[in-house]
Design goal:
The complex is a heterodimer of chains A (about 450) and B (about 300). Chain A is about 60% helix and about 0% strand. In chain A, helix 4 packs across helix 5, helix 11 crosses helix 15 and helix 14 packs antiparallel against helix 15 (about 370-400). The model of chain A is unreliable at about 415-440 (pLDDT under 50). Chain A has a two-stranded antiparallel ribbon with strand order 1-2. With about 450 residues, chain A is mainly alpha-helical. Chain A is built from 17 helices and 2 strands. Chain A has helices at about 15-20, 25-35, 50-70, 80-90, 95-120, 130-150, 155-165, 175-185, 190-220, 240-265, 295-305, 315-325, 330-335, 345-365, 370-400, 410-415, 435-440, and strands at about 40, 240. Chain A folds into 3 domains: about 1-30, no CATH class; about 35-160 and about 195-285, Cytochrome Bc1 Complex, Chain C; about 290-410, Helix Hairpins (Orthogonal Bundle). Chain B has 11 helices and 4 strands, in the order ααααββααααββααα. Chain B has about 300 residues and is mainly alpha-helical. Chain B has 2 domains: about 40-85 and about 130-245, Orthogonal Bundle (Cytochrome Bc1 Complex, Chain D, domain 2), CATH 1.10.760.10; about 250-305. The chains are: A mainly alpha (about 450), B mainly alpha (about 300). Chains A and B meet through helix 4, helix 5, helix 10, helix 12 and helix 15 of A and helix 1, helix 10 and helix 11 of B.
């Protein structure tokens, strides 16, 4: 698809040949994740998390479909169908549910690392703007899906989380309250809200899968970016996806799943909130309403606006929270530096790590009771978040002196032994004939 | 254009946050938030070691049976156990006949109808029934308990921060209100009908001390019954009701961990094998760095080629 030296699909088995002539699906798969997709040879382990996110999407869909077979989307039945039927009576139901619960968390862990990798290595820059934007669409869909999924067990946090999050809409003047009532199907979360959230929670993962296909399609036009940010120049710079990156992704996926399974089997409720094991009670507000950990930074931004400056504080909070994600769509045009990789941008690099710390601090602020210290820290971190993307980044990209880039990917990787680097599978470079070695 | 608009939006948000920060700090300085007794005197649960802790933990069935006895003789007077059924007790080591007897002897009947008149009635519990609740409904429960609602205990160790240790600490944590607290917060005197307990979030709990004297429950297995021991046993029992599949989860976890560990190792070796020819140390800092050049020279020297 992308490079002239990409190997075309040559079916070996007559059956595959027969299929390929009629429906070239094997050809598409081969070109997408097989030997027909040339990938820069210098990718580091930060590039593994996209595939991992895909694995977790699959885990969520598979466990979710089976869980849906045993779940009752009614306010009377939901809590018991999860906590009695699924957790006690369904064979291995506890495994499905804990795998699904923690799968959501690990899906977000993989996705956050994937997003920050993109931020550091400038993966959002031309010609990959649409890859980045489709990725953000996936992320927004994930957030909606995760929120609605958290409502389904109909525990205290489910109910009050739904109350708070749908309450965002009521911050908008005039249309706000009618919109909130329309979304909930009532004045408070109830049967109507629960059933529609269930319906959408089942639908959206398939929409995500569709956008993932577009994301990968758009990626395969320019090909993957790489840690140097230098464009692929010739065949020496790339390796076929299979077997090289399937092998790398394969072992790393097993190692990451190991961490996921240790949490799922030995600390399944560590990432959740105890209050969600109390059945929803519209008359008893929990001491503290906190969303799932992956929303904490945004929750901190929302809560940081406490002063009615022209607009009500709540509206400021909601606008800022939506803006904090929407601004990422404009990143390719905000950061105009022609150098993609943060490794060659000394000033950008410092601010990038500051942003990482900032988002972690925001998460800490959003996850706990708003004490005066936490509130003040949250306000400072929220201000930095916006200043980073909207003020600092454009200035840095304008005034920064970048480091010299390597001439090519192969040169950066092969310590100047470019001549030695035969395309993979064409000759043994280690045993090196004297002829190739002396060419250096 | 995008950058100009973004620049302004960024400054506006940062400005409003600054105003919020200043007004918040000013408020806190002029009228600092009053300290609360529930913040200063609240205690974290005491440590509790259970046989079911840790990756290889298994339930201590004798302890669970003792805990069940404490539940049925003490707690079940007020607290329901709605998600657990009598047949589940077989996991504690009771035989079919014993479970049948426990069910039919249970003090509360299962709501039912009179088969002839269709009027509401009760019947004896069967092993397939869930534990019947001590009160017919929430209103009845509140009416009998000074308007407090005794929570269902099925999931209590998962529904409270601290889990089984919290349950154990709460049951054994009743004490007279410290004089120091009353001196500092004269308004925080425990109200009539409530009981001071530093492990409870707001320090004053409606539940009267449930376990007060040694020997309150006479254990079927003849174990000595102390308040501390009974509290531990019932905490262990409630850890089981909240997580009855813990043992199979732990066992499955061991196999899955070993499998994935082997898969990672084999996968890593396969990866090294596949990349053998293509692999070079990735240094995005570039080929001309002294360290990389040294590596390159030593690699060549090893192969006996001139470089």
């Amino acid at each position: 698809m992308s490079f002239s030296w990409a190997k075309p699909y040559e079916p070996k088995h007559p059956v595959m040949k027969w299929v390929d002539e009629r429906l070239p699906l094997p050809r598409v798969v081969y070109g997408a994740i097989g030997g027909g997709y040339p990938v820069p040879r210098n990718l580091n382990y930060w590039w593994n998390f996209g595939v991992l996110a895909g694995i977790f999407l699959t885990i969520q869909i598979v466990t979710g479909i089976v869980l849906a077979m045993h779940y009752y989307a009614t306010t009377d039945g939901a809590f018991n169908s999860v906590n009695q039927l699924i957790m006690r009576d369904v064979n291995a139901g506890w495994l499905l549910r804990y795998a699904h619960m923690n799968g959501a968390s690990f899906f977000f862990i993989a996705t956050y690392i994937h997003i920050f990798r993109g931020l550091y290595y400038g993966s959002y820059k031309a010609p990959r703007e649409l890859v980045w934007m489709l990725g953000l669409v996936i992320y927004l869909l994930m957030m909606a899906t995760a929120f609605m999924g958290y409502v389904l067990p109909w525990g205290q946090m489910s109910y009050w989380g739904a109350q708070v999050i749908t309450g965002f809409f009521s911050a908008f003047p005039v249309i706000g309250e009618p919109l909130r009532v329309f979304i909930l199907g009532g004045y408070a979360p109830d049967e109507a809200a629960l059933t529609r959230f269930f319906s959408l929670h089942y639908l959206l993962p398939f929409v995500i899968a569709g956008v993932v296909i577009l994301h990968i399609w758009a990626l395969h036009i320019p090909g993957s970016s790489n840690p140097t940010g230098v464009d692929v120049k010739d065949e020496k710079d790339t390796l076929p996806f299979h077997p090289f990156y399937t092998a790398k992704d394969g072992w790393f996926a097993a190692a990451f799943l190991l961490v996921y399974c240790v949490v799922t089997f030995y600390a399944p409720n560590y990432l959740g909130h105890p209050d969600n094991y109390i059945p929803a009670n519209p008359l008893a507000t929990p001491a503290e309403i906190v969303p799932e950990w992956y929303f904490w930074p945004f929750y901190a931004i929302l809560r940081s606006f406490t002063f009615d400056f022209i607009l009500p504080a709540k509206l400021w909070g909601v606008l800022a929270m939506f803006s904090s994600i929407l601004l990422l769509f404009f990143l390719p045009w905000i950061d105009k530096s022609p150098v993609r990789s943060g490794s060659y941008r000394p000033v950008f690099k410092r601010f990038f790590w500051l942003l990482v710390v900032d988002v972690l601090v925001l998460g800490w602020c959003g996850g706990g009771a708003p004490t005066p210290f936490r509130a003040a820290l949250g306000q400072i971190s929220a201000a930095y978040y916006f200043l980073h993307f909207l003020v600092i980044l454009p200035l840095v990209s304008r005034f920064e002196t970048t480091l010299p880039l390597p001439n090519s990917i192969s040169e950066s990787v092969l310590h100047g032994e470019a001549a030695e680097a035969a395309p993979a599978g064409q000759g043994n470079t280690r045993g090196g004939s004297v002829a190739t070695a002396t060419a250096h | 254009m995008v950058r100009v608009i973004g620049f302004l939006v960024g400054l506006v948000f940062a400005g409003v946050l600054l105003i919020s920060l200043i007004s918040g700090v000013a408020t806190n300085l002029s009228s600092p938030p009053a300290p609360l007794a529930s913040e200063e005197f609240h205690k974290h649960p005491k440590p509790l070691r259970l046989a079911s802790d840790g990756p290889f933990g298994k339930f201590d069935k004798a302890q669970l049976q003792r805990g069940f006895q404490v539940y049925s003789e003490v707690c079940s007077a007020c607290h329901s156990l709605k998600l657990v059924s009598f047949r589940d007790l077989k996991e504690l080591g009771y035989t079919d006949a014993e479970v049948k007897k426990i069910a039919s002897d249970w003090k509360t009947q299962v709501p039912s109808i009179n088969p002839e008149t269709g009027e509401a009635a009760g019947r004896k519990a069967l092993p397939s029934d869930n534990f019947p609740s001590p009160f017919a409904n929430e209103t009845a429960a509140r009416a009998a308990n000074n308007n407090a609602l005794p929570p269902d205990l099925s999931l209590i160790t998962k529904a409270r921060e601290g889990g089984a240790a919290y349950v154990y600490s709460l049951i054994t944590g009743y004490q007279p209100q410290p004089a120091e607290l009353l001196k500092k917060f004269p308004d925080a005197k425990t109200p009539q009908g409530l009981h001071y307990n530093p492990y409870f979030a707001n320090l004053n709990i409606a539940m009267p001390p449930p376990l007060t004297t040694a020997g309150q429950v006479t254990f079927a297995d003849g174990s000595p019954s102390t308040v501390d021991g009974m509290a531990k046993d019932v905490a262990a029992f409630l850890a089981w009701t909240a997580e009855p599949n813990l043992e199979s989860r732990h066992a499955a976890g061991v196999s899955v961990t070993i499998f994935l560990l082997l898969a990672s190792i084999l996968g890593y070796l396969a990866y090294r094998q596949i990349w053998h020819d293509a692999k070079r140390v990735v240094r995005v800092t570039g080929p001309l760095e002294a360290e990389n050049q040294a590596k390159s020279r030593s690699a060549k020297a090893k192969q006996g080629v001139a470089g």
